[in-house]
Amino acid sequence: MPEEINHPVQGSKYDKIFRENMHNTLPGIIKHVLHLNVNTVEELADDVQFTKERKTDLLKKVRDNKGNRYVLHVEYQTDNYPEMAFRMAEYSIMLQRKHKLPVKQFVIYIGPAKANMATSITTKDFRFRYNLTELSAVNYKLFLKSDLVEEKMLAILSNLASESTESVLAQVVQEIETHTSTLEQGRYFRQLRILLQLRNLNKKAIKDMALVGKIFKEEKDILYRRGEIKGEIKGEIKGEIKGIEKGRYEEAMEIALELKKEGLATEFIAKITKLSIEEIQAL
């Protein structure tokens, strides 16, 4: 059964991808999606205090080509949330109060349907509006031209014009294979599988079996077994990879064998699998 795009857990996966890749995709998003002329970008804390703390998807202090300074606030949205205008208004007021700067807000819609959210609030004593844009309106070639793999992957969610989805997907896969290491590819293919769900694509919908084999081969990759090991790989394995649940001895041995084939150090394998060095050496 396909996972629901608007389910909170599934939605958080999309948020996680865009947060992970934000540093590299930001220049392209600002230029091609938001159509802003920005010269400098400064980091801002992305948490905003309401009755409870909420994190924004993107929050930066920027200066444009005319010297104007403002807070750039961006939210990614996978569904047509009926009260988005009120949510953005809440953010706007709190951000203006906190940073004492004008706030320019965008919602980038990445869902499969057309965006139809209200973008303004107009009452007798209050007026508010934010900018709503769709990633699917941007020509995919603009993203593929990027030097960054994270930005290239956005081509899948953009306007494919007369190109078939599989054709563009094949180009993205080729870029991943050409410009990243074997370890990095695992991470990017994992992200790509999740992004494909935003276009209602799974392995059964892709006819090119060679393409399916490349994209979905990581489903059995030990490093990405859902719910068992969490980690991020980029150039090298970074951070802490959480071990296997207690009692999963056979699974731990399988993982150790796969990691040993990849040439990883015995001590490192022992650390993440909780197996002894002797057990790993015997494999």
TrEMBL record:
PANTHER family hit by this protein: SLL0800 PROTEIN, SLL6017 PROTEIN
Name of the featured protein: Transposase (putative) YhgA-like domain-containing protein
Gene source species: Pedobacter heparinus (strain ATCC 13125 / DSM 2366 / CIP 104194 / JCM 7457 / NBRC 12017 / NCIMB 9290 / NRRL B-14731 / HIM 762-3)
Lineage of source species: Bacteria, Pseudomonadati, Bacteroidota, Sphingobacteriia, Sphingobacteriales
